[in-house]
Structures are given as C-alpha cells and as structure tokens.
Amino acid sequence: MDDIRVAQWLDPDCDLPHVAGLELPVGPFLRREAAVQGIPQRVLDSTMLVRPTRGVRSLGVPRSLVERATALMPALPQDAAFSHVTGAALLGLPLSYAMERDERLHVSGRLDTRRMRRPGVVAHRCLHTRSRDAVEGLPVVGLADTWVDLGELVGRGKPVGLDDLIVIGDAIATRLDAIAPLRRAIMRRVRPRGKATLLEALQEIRVGSASPRETLARLMLVRCGLPEPRLNHPVLDEAGHLLGYADLLWKEQRIAGEYQGEEFHDGDEERARDERRRLSFERHADLSVEEIWKADMATRADREACVLRFAHALGVPSSQLDLGKAEPRFFSTYAMDQAEQREMRRSARRWD
C-alpha cells in the first residue's frame, strides 16, 4: 500500500462509518494489509466496498480488462504475469471472436508455485521462463512467448486455430519487424503444447501485415497458388516521391491489392480518398489496383471468384490454381492427419 495513492474518505453522505482522517487506497488493496495499517474491520467488511476477488477490496467496480486485471494484482504471487488470451488482449493483439468470449483472467507463474484457485481466474504454471512486458503497470508475458502460449488453446473445442495463430503471428512479427523472435520462443520450450500447429503457422507468418483481414486475404490468395505479394510496400512515382503503401504488391506484375475494410473505407469521404489513391497508383506508378472487400471473403463462391479475379490480373492460368484452398483453416495439417488416422482405426474396428 505504500506505493498506492490514498484518498480521504470524508464524504458525509457515504454509508460507510465516518472515521476522522480515515485513508483508503484509491486502487484495489488487500484486506489484510489494510487491517494491519489500522483500517477498521467494519469498514473493510462494509457493502460499500467492492470485492473483486477473495481478500481484495476496492472503492470502485472494475469493468474494463485493465481494471479487472488491476483488481487481481494484489492477490497475485510476485512472479506471476498475465498471459494467454488475457496477455494477448492487454498487448493489443488481434483476437478472434472465440478468444474474445473468454473473459477469464489468465495468469502464469513458476511451476514450483502453488496453483491459484479463484473464480474467473485460470492459473498456468510454467516450466520455462517467459519474457515480460508492462502494460498499464501490469506484468504481461512478452509478445513472442504469448504467441507460443496460445498453442495451449489449440484443438477441438478450444478457441485458437491455425489461422488465428498466423493472424496474431503477423501482428507480432510486424511489431517486432522480424519473425525470428517467434521461432526462438518455440525453440526455447521443450515440447510446448500445440507445437505442430505453431510450427505450421510459423511457415505462413510474414512481416508487414497491417490488419487481420489483410493477413486472411493474403492467405486466401497465396494458398490457392498465386505468387507471394510484398506487404504494405511503398509505392513511388517516377520522380521517387511516395504515393502511399500498397496492402499487397506484386511489383513484377504491376498489380496492387487493396483491402477495403468497412470500418475505414465505407463512408463517402473514405471512398473518395480510396478513389484518389487508386488513380494515383494507376497514373503515376503504372499499377493496376484490385480491391478486396469483406464480401469477397464471405462465402466459398465469393472467395473463389476473388482468387480468379486476382489470378486473371496476375496472368496466372486457372488450371494452376487449387481453389479448394481458399477456405479459412482452423485445424493444422497434423491435426487433420491425426483425425483421419483415428477415423481409419475406428472403421477397421467396426469391420473386425
């Protein structure tokens, strides 16, 4: 409590018993520490104080993720850090809908510490040390180690799939300007959970993606057999002046792919800006611009039509494409092979 700002609780309208000169921490605090410092029991047990978790009191109700994590901090072991889905959210990484639905607080600590058992908290005990970052004063497992930790949440009935790991991996690699930290984070672990899926995801992670949808658009096109584009590559005019950055750029073929997300490109002003950008690329950089909208990735038919449109622009014959690979992927190749083998064994038993 020494490092926590304190406030005078002297509001005459408050239902708490009035104690002259009473000081309560502004942030969440441990009940036992407050009692040692002289806060009366009747105050600590008053219904006017919020109990975010066992043994912790707070003046306000924690609502946001940062507030809920801060409320848990007084009860955490000293070496613990927020991890997995919680860590990814605190680090600002892109989460799928399934991951966002997990509102529990995930924390990680050393293997030799006692497992924390509290409602709404998932405690992970770790054999290997993790790098750490600080977010809003909260200890959080570092970017690359968080990505590897998410491998524990891969599989049937779990929220993380192959494409999720690629989307998050793209975001981390772009932030770190390198893929190597992700590879090193895997190699530091002995048989991490989800290793096969992590390694497969690693093969498709690239530096430069600016959004989850850009990553998914790239995967859709490249998996079907189109050449790899450069990501968010600068586009210059003949004089060397910067015209902008192409989301996807096939420089040799003079094709730029632009993902037009509805959030930033659906209004009249945004559409006008996009049109000026398109004309600038076409007139001053000799590029043809192909747009990708959310609707282009909505159904199987939409995805295949989008791939064929880009194939035509890039001069790739449709006979060289595998349009079946335009579908998003949740399971890794390893997981699908394992499922196929299990089905073959079940079929064999039925015929015995």
Reading the helices and strands in chain order gives EEEHHEHEHHEEEEHHHHHEEEHHEHH
> Which residues form runs of ≥5 with pLDDT under 50?
1-20
Q: Helical proportion?
A: 25-40%
What gross morphology would you assign? Answer: globular
- Rg measurement, Å: 26 Å
- With strands numbered from the N-terminus, the spatial order across the biggest sheet is 10-11-12-13
Distance between the termini: 69 Å
Largest sheet: 4 strands, mixed
**Rounded mean pLDDT score:** 87
Structural class call reads alpha+beta
Query: Number of helical segments?
Result: 14
Total domain units? 3
Tell me the number of strands.
Answer: 13
Q: How large a portion of the residues is in β-strands, by DSSP E?
A: 15-25%
How would you describe what is shown here?
The protein is α+β, with helices and mostly antiparallel strands. The protein folds into 3 domains: 6-67, no CATH class; 77-89 and 101-202, no CATH class; 212-326, Endonuclease, Chain A. The chain has helices spanning 31-36, 41-44, 65-72, 84-90, 97-100, 143-149, 162-176, 180-187, 195-202, 212-223, 262-265, 268-284, 300-314, 333-351, and strands spanning 6-8, 23-25, 29-30, 56-57, 81-82, 105-110, 121-126, 132-135, 138-141, 230-236, 242-250, 255-260, 288-293. The strands form 5 sheets. A 4-stranded mixed beta sheet has the order 10-11-12-13. A 3-stranded mixed beta sheet has the order 5-6-7. It has a two-stranded antiparallel sheet with strand order 1-2. The longest helix is centred in the last third of the chain and has 19 residues, at 333-351. Residues 1-20 have low confidence and may be disordered.
